[in-house]
User: Fold these one by one.
Assistant:
Number 1:
Amino acid sequence: MSGFGIFFYSVLAQLRFLKTLVVYLYKKGGVQMNPQEELHLLYLRLKEEEPSVARGEALWAIFEETADDSLRFLSLWTFSQNQFDLGHFRSFLVSFTLLMEWIRKDEMTLTPKQELDLYWNYKSYLIYMAEQEDVTVSLLEEDLDRFIDFCDAHGFIRTRDYISFMVYSKLGDEEQADHYLSEWVDAPSDELSDCPSCEAFSRMTYAIERGFEDRALLLYAALRHERGCSRMPDQAHPYILPLFLSRKKERFDWSERLIEEVKRGETLFTGGDEPYHLYAKMYYDTNYTWSMEEKKQLIPFLTDRGYLQFLLAHYAFAHRQSLGEEASYLAALRTNLYEIAQSLDRRIEGVFYLNLVERELKRITQFVA
């Protein structure tokens, strides 16, 4: 925790300047404020700003400076939302893990609307925690049970089973994931449900990871026509593109259109989404080059599952550069991929991610040149 907090101390000077400015303006108007009021006013202003790195830094500084527990909770919560919106998934997890200390102790005083918003973020916390190899299944299921209790108390049956599906699919527990998939698809929507296109996206990515390619393509085709949030279908394009192009003899007429859609949406998704764009790029841009040094700044944003995808993209690039030769660097990358896949699988003693890596390495060998 302390190391993560130290990362943001460089912005305290900016925060103090803002506080000084606020105090000056209020004194000019004949209003006196104590330091906690100043911080609260800053929080209210930052809460309305668009997500940005600077906004996140200022929110974190408020969290560290304030002595007001309520403001600490609110600034940390808004910080976690900011990090998620930026695609900085690992810092989102770090901050929401701290929030869980309040949630587990039931120490918050929230309006019904705030509580609903908090549990909306809780959904993302559960999903991305399930992408971390060092999170125990027992802890994850404990937090999932707390989420399920909330859903049961409010009648959010579809959301309860959907998030259970997502958690177990990320764990690689195919039996449990399939069970909850069969439960949530027919349940009525509720206030905490994802939009239809986001739900279709989750089914599509699960089908890709299971190796159910025909099902994934059908789900993608349906997703393109779903009505939902602004992230879809743009977010789905790079996920399906490698699979799509590796079967282009069957569906060649859509290839160029899909490539253009991937390119158009690339700038919309950064941070933790970027490995999927990097991997897709290896299938359609033969002139694209990058180095591990160039992309190192991505790694702190990624979950372990995201890092696995990052290494698949790096392997595809290295394979292209070596023209398929069995170079020692490729062998080292393969070893790293297997180690990460096995660490993710070890949580339930499965082979879900190992099978995924083997399928994608075969696809790279056949279609990345």
Number 2:
Amino acid sequence: MRTMQQAGVAMQFPDEIGFIFNPCKIYLTHRNLAQVAVTVTDGTTTQEQTFEAAKGKIRADIRAMVQSCFDGVRYGRVEYGTEASSSGVGKEIEVSVEARNENNAGELEVATTFEFTVFYIWGALAVGEVYNGFRTLTYFRGYPFTVGLYNDSPNGAAIIGNDGVATNVINLGMQGVYDVPLTPDTAKGYYTITDFRGTLTATTFDDTYDLTFRKIGEGTYTDKVRINIVDGMEGGVYLRWINRHGFTCYYLFKAGDRQNQVTSSEDIYRNDLADYDESYGYQYASGHKQTHSRQDVLPVCAPLVDRETWDYLLDAATSPIVDMFMGYDTNGVPRWQGVRIQAGTYTKTSATLQDFALNILLPETPIQSI
């Protein structure tokens, strides 16, 4: 965490990068500190909240305020036709902290105001987990695909390599999380992405002491991603989801037998003064109203994946945003349908290769009632 001191008030606050579902804490201390007023804004949405001190100390978690700044983000909007586009899951958040002391008369007065910015990402990291580090991905040719990258500072750039030969430089522009499509698609076996200007640095999350992040890699020409190409895969179920790092992910699963779960409920209406039984006598003489509902479940499996890919696919089971590929429209634009993943237990064995299976809950099918 960063530290700052003004007018005798000491404050600890988050580093330059953070995740909105991890703790977003600020600490303030002063012998006369009584209250702080915190304002959080992304330029469009503004949230304000006050926190009371206990014995001159305040510990506040402002993650709920930061999360509200992401309410209007369209998470499924991915541009597949451009070199690189911002995914919208990262924002620079401005935070203002007004420290108020209690004077001898028992009145509150402003001691000082702290101001700082944090680049927050729509995600969450586990302890010791590396963000924006080296990854190995699989590209199923013929299906829409992008690579997620975090650019740490302005004028970032990445080098795209085809089969080990550098062929293209992609400019990433300002700080943010980017979706990078592989266009033009000319490689035969694999693609590589390397850091060109030292702006795709990796960070790791460590809450041993202060729930913060630290950079673990800097420099140029750092390997970031290897994308292995798989050709000739048709059929199956192609999913897209946002993982805990805020990156858009993709994978092609083999489909199992589709299950149709039908449930019903009945209500009984009795009215001896009306002709209900005569009107609806063809169904039940006692006057029943019957309603059905239908839930379609599609089991899918990724056979014999390695341990790194297994972890990669597990994020699909926990992501609140999962889409299923429905083909291309007449203009060649990918069509997606939002789906849910059925909750369950996923067991990772000690085997080098193992299957990864999950159940997709398709949108509920409307059913008539009578």
Number 3:
Amino acid sequence: MLSMLTLLKRLNPSTLRFPWPAAALALLTACSDPSADDEAGDAGDDAEAPELGDTPLPSCESAMFSFDQLVGELALPEPDVDYAIELYRGAPPDLSGESPTPGGSALQRWVREVGAQLGRVEAGVLLDDAAIEAALDLAASETGEARKLALLDVLGLLRNVALLDVRARLAIVADVLPDPQRDPSLLRGEWDQAWCVWSGVLAPLASEVDVATNEGWSDAIVGAFESGYAGIVGPEQPWAPDEFATKPAKQVIEKGSFGVVARALIERAEQAQAGADPFAAREASGLFVLIEDRIQGRNTPAIELIEPMLAGPPEAIDPASIETELAVAFVKRARKYCDEALLADALGSADAAKGVDEGILYTRIILPQM
């Protein structure tokens, strides 16, 4: 039975009124109260600013609804594989009428859009979409435990796409340069899209972790989404975002999400080991993919330890060992960002401020190990 990691690594790439009279208008203009203009201007200044999530995103909302339905289906002892496939693939294309429909689902279109935007393509094949399709085909050909394991691979792949999407969209806003020709609504749209995806895919994990740990990950991340959104319109010019708001907020959301994933991974590993549960082990394996790039280069040998452990017999999983190996990588990252925040040429800058939050968040992740 191929795991999600194997599907990703072995995938063969070959296989989105009436007009007023002029005299009346002149009379109204001549008799108007000058203070009315001031009051109108004041009213304009007091106009309610957009709030987080105000951008209409029907496609994202539809995709997240399908994801939620898939999660609910996978919670059942015997998920309906046909329903799971329908949630992802949707209806087939209909090219017979005068208005052809492309088919597919909002969920699949979102995966393909993210893959194309991030360049997750090889030989013309969108890798994430192809891996999900392969896992669905495998699930359809299997029965019992093997079928559910394949469907859990789909869940892991979708979570990975979600975190990549969130990180990329937040970076677009946090790294942008001032531009008087740019409408702030464009950046709000990117931030709102990240919020939509995070709320649909990763927020349930954060809530689950908070119930178990009482560490407040959800409040910290939601607060960062709100403060970063408020900073998209800068204090001096609307087209110059407040870097002291957007840059740190991006880091709190991103590193906070890594913390949530790490906590959920350890919880699934403990569940798998205690109950010899292959489903918890497979979900843990999928979660590890989300933070693997955080381990690479900081504690690379841990990858060769953790991946086969999660793919092996569930009762042989060592959650404490996994937690320690993750902590080794995270403490190195915490030290790096704390050091960068104190560099003479960065001290007092927005980059230093974001470095402080990066270091703090990585430190929060490893606190249970200290």
